[in-house]
UniProtKB/TrEMBL annotation:
Belongs to the class-II aminoacyl-tRNA synthetase family. Its EC number is 6.1.1.22. Residues 134-468 form the Aminoacyl-transfer RNA synthetases class-II family profile domain. Gene3D superfamilies: Bira Bifunctional Protein, Domain 2, Nucleic acid-binding proteins. Homodimer. Its main location: cytoplasm. It catalyses: tRNA(Asn) + L-asparagine + ATP = L-asparaginyl-tRNA(Asn) + AMP + diphosphate + H(+). The gene is asnS. InterPro entries: Aa-tRNA-synt_II (IPR004364), aa-tRNA-synth_II (IPR006195), aa-tRNA-synth_II/BPL/LPL (IPR045864), Asn-tRNA-ligase (IPR004522), Asp/Asn-tRNA-synth_IIb (IPR002312), NA-bd_OB-fold (IPR012340), NA-bd_OB_tRNA (IPR004365). This is Asparagine--tRNA ligase. PROSITE patterns: AA_TRNA_LIGASE_II. It comes from Dyadobacter arcticus.
Length: 478
């Protein structure tokens, strides 16, 4: 459909046939005998080289062929004279769709820092790095849908606007149509949300899980894949205020089954990317190697493709929270007081602890289970001992927590008790509680932060660089 893309043209056998190229100029190079234009249309990391003869085009026209300009080039597809590509295009005609004034266009063919590129997020998809990331992001999203479809899951669309603050997963963004300058008040002076759009307080969702559970109690296996919002003021390289989450929820799955699914799922989608994003991954691998070339050999990270294959080919380490605490208590950094935060049964593991377990101790992805009930959500199923819950976190090297999940509490009385314990008004989630009254069933689910997965696969250090238009504190440009 539509004109042939550069990716397809690059794979075509050259027979002097007429071709039309449409894309953006990456570079123009003039030598004594020829003018070379490298054109890219985003369909592939590779540029196509188009060649003109000196004097073939007017100096005025050539002046507007600069980095960033958009062109239509007519020509013949021929075998390439130069090295590095098999085909090139002998130009017969050039049409400049849109020039890009070189004095003003910020993306010149030189190295730009990722921080600078974040300030020009409207243009950064035109760089090799970001176009590669965006293509990989697409392939991973496709692989996610394919995986669940192939495994009998139904894609459930959970609401973006919610009125329940039950998940407690993070600070919420308020949704309102009230006039902030003229807030309606009740008699005692509080804001009268009865006059707001929904007749009550509403927020952007922090997770689709609760509604996902409703779906699982009818369709057995569902998944959500949508945007989630957390107004957490965390300026880390792992948190966004708006991110995409994949949340499968399955009836008749216990914690073991949940772990098996989580492990199989991430392995399959990473394997899919390895198979379908070779060129982009190779590019990103070299980019990382380049970034680290000044580091001593023993401090360099393992090559990206090797890292991904390792995760696909090796079983994740599974252990309980209690076992993990024992390992941490016996660890060198603990004994030498190198950890910033104290270690002991009951603590919420901080990222330094998770990183020690994953990167130093096991050197592979880890699934931690059976966390203390106090540090986990109310809906997680209590273990027999009453002290721990059937939670599971999947921890990845360089990322930390990539998945958080659990078997859900399916017993009405126990769930209600926990609801009271954590101070949620049962009235606000009456519909959630009813699933435990009518045909309750053992069930489980988890949430995977899509950007953390993209971060892992692309090797990018900052989560702000794996989503087209990142949202974080004090930043909602574009
Ligand atoms: P963390 O401790 O890293 O903040 P969390 O415990 O708040 O994570 P969950 O509420 O379990 O995370 O959410 C499920 C998954 O969503 C996490 O495992 C992670 O991959 C992802 N995630 C959570 N918060 C964010 C965020 N602010 N930005 C991007 N991804 C996130
Ligand atoms: Mn969080």
């Amino acid at each position: 459909m539509g004109p042939l893309q550069i990716k397809e043209i690059l794979q075509t056998a050259p027979e002097n046939q007429a071709v039309t190229l449409k894309g953006w100029v990456r570079t123009k190079r003039e030598s004594k005998n020829a003018i070379f234009i490298a054109l890219n249309d985003g369909s592939t990391i590779h540029n196509i080289q188009a060649v003109a003869e000196p004097g073939q085009f007017s100096p005025e026209l050539l002046l507007s062929v600069t980095t960033g300009a958009c062109l239509k080039i007519e020509g013949q597809l021929v075998e390439s004279q130069g090295s590095g590509q098999t085909v090139e295009v002998k130009i017969t005609d050039i049409l400049v769709y849109g020039a890009a004034d070189p004095d003003a266009y910020p993306l010149q063919p030189k190295k730009h820092s990722l921080e600078f590129l974040r300030e020009i997020a409207h243009l950064r998809p035109r760089t090799n790095t970001f176009s590669a990331i965006l293509r990989i992001r697409h392939v991973l999203a496709f692989a996610v849908h394919q995986y669940y479809n192939d495994n009998g899951f139904f894609y459930l669309h959970t609401p973006v606007i919610t009125a329940s603050d039950a998940e407690g997963a993070g600070e919420m963004f308020r949704v309102t149509t009230l006039d902030l300058n003229k807030l309606p008040r009740t008699e005692d002076g509080a804001i009268n949300f009865k006059e707001d759009f929904f007749g009550r307080e509403a927020n952007l969702t922090v997770s689709g899980q609760l509604e996902g559970e409703l779906g699982a109690m009818a369709l057995s296996k569902i998944y959500t894949f949508g945007p989630t919002f957390r107004a957490e003021n965390s300026n880390t390289t792992r948190h966004l205020a708006e991110f995409w989450m994949i949340e499968p929820e399955m009836a008749f799955f216990e914690l073991e089954d949940n772990m098996d699914l989580a492990e199989d799922f991430v392995k399959k989608v990473i394997a899919y990317a390895l198979e379908h994003c070779k060129d982009d991954l190779n590019f990103l691998q070299s980019r990382l190697a380049e970034e680290e070339k000044n580091k001593p050999q023993n401090e360099r990270s393992i090559p990206l493709l090797e890292k991904l294959s390792f995760v696909v080919d090796n079983p994740f380490e599974r252990l309980t929270y209690t076992e993990a605490i024992d390992i941490l208590l016996k660890s060198k950094p603990h004994k030498e007081k190198k950890f910033q935060y104290p270690v002991g049964w009951g603590i919420d593991l901080s990222s330094e602890h998770e990183r020690y377990l994953v990167e130093k101790h096991f050197k592979k992805p880890v699934i931690l289970t059976n966390y203390p009930r106090e540090i986990k959500s109310f809906y997680m199923k209590l273990d027999e001992d009453g002290k721990t819950v059937r939670a599971m976190d999947v921890l990845f090297p360089g990322i930390g927590e990539i998945i958080g999940g659990s078997q859900r509490e399916d017993n009405y009385e126990k769930l209600l008790e926990r609801v009271h314990e954590v101070g949620i008004d049962p009235q606000t989630i009456w519909w959630y509680l009813e699933t435990r009254k009518f045909g309750t069933a053992p069930h489980s689910g988890f949430g995977l932060g899509f950007e953390r997965l993209v971060q892992f696969v692309t090797g990018m250090g900052n989560i702000r660089d794996v989503i087209p238009f990142p949202r974080y504190p004090k930043s909602a440009e574009f």
